[in-house]
Amino acid sequence: LNQGTSGNLSVRCEAGFLITPASMDYAGMATDDIVQMDLDGHHQGQRKPSSEWRFHAAIYRHRAEVHAVLHAHPANCSALACLNKGIPAFHYMVAVAGGRDIRCADYATFGTAELSESVIRALRDRKACLMAHHGLTCIERDLPRALALAIEVENLANVYCHILAIGEAEILPDDEMDRVLEKFSHYRG
């Protein structure tokens, strides 16, 4: 989903959260490179936290059920985000992100409080959002589920990009998406 040192991961812990360090290649990362942070932005460890720590902290402050945050720059999600497009209900699997659509957060400079506020708004009642001119953020109860969600959203973005290259997508009606969401609430528990 990522190239080089882009993107970041975090998991909630008793003292706040653990997050990947800034500008470090994941292939060479060791346990000691992970940064511990509290929800106010204070960090411990030998490395600096990811520049996106603010929206990770904001998510943990606003969403008690979230225990993992994944932020990435996958190609198709980023393409849609650069068009300031979310992903509408062209396919029932859009509901995997928790709603009738996957919103695109308004643009703000990376690492800023403004970006955190924009991401929080876009994630209201959702588990994933695109970020205008940036990438993707997914939230879940653990890292494996966050990764699975990110892979699914990137797949949806890929299909949606193909549809847009051909024409316009037919959007499922709200009542159908509500039925799917109800079924998913039991199926995906």
List descriptors.
single chain; 189 residues; alpha+beta; 17% strand; globular
Can you describe this structure?
The chain is 35% helix and 17% strand. The protein has 189 residues and is an alpha+beta fold. Strands 4-3-2-1-5-8-7-6 form an eight-stranded mixed β-sheet, sandwiched between helices. β1 (8-13) and β2 (16-19) form a beta hairpin.
Radius of gyration: 16 Å
The strand order across the widest sheet is 4-3-2-1-5-8-7-6
The overall pLDDT average reads: 94
Strand content: 15-25%
* Computed structural class: alpha+beta
* Biggest sheet descriptor: 8 strands, mixed
The helix content, as a percent range, equals 25-40%
Provide the succession of SSEs: EEEEHEHEHEEHH
Helix count from the secondary structure assignment: 5
How far apart are the termini?
25 Å
Number of strands: 8
Overall 3D shape:
globular
Report low-confidence residues grouped into runs of 5 or more: none
